[in-house]
Amino acid sequence: MMIKLMYIANIIVAGWISVQSLFYPRSAWTCIFEENVAFSCTIQLVGALWFAIFILSIIGLWFPTEMGLVLVFQLIYKSLWLLAVAVPALKMGVPFPKGMACFFLIWVIILPWIIPWKELFPFISKIGE
After folding, report:
1. Which residues are within 8 A (CB) of 34 and not within 5 positions of it... i.e. 6 or more apart?
2. From 41, 106, 108, 117, which residue has the greatest number of CB atoms within 10 Å?
3. pLDDT tens digits for range 73-112
């Protein structure tokens, strides 16, 4: 049940952000990226990535375990962004999208508890046997 709630959250958040970023990049630059990144077509590229997560999360409502790799992907890229961009920017006092960092942090804290690790990676349960 929790995994489906995560997909619903992805549908809402990634859906809204992806549409903003793809079709209204100036608006996304202001409200999502908080004008803390250079305005470029990269915003639309990120929007395309988030739109893919949106679509795959819709499929995840019907195939929650099978689509679990979408959640693993999110855990990896959000963790990397927090470690490589947000933490250094925070330490140096450099502007960065703080709202995005908060959302990413929430996802990174929640996802490890929701991802169906044993079903996605059955070899994990065989380690140590």
Report:
1. 95, 97, 98, 99, 100
2. 108
3. 999 999 999 999 999 999 999 999 999 999 999 999 999 9
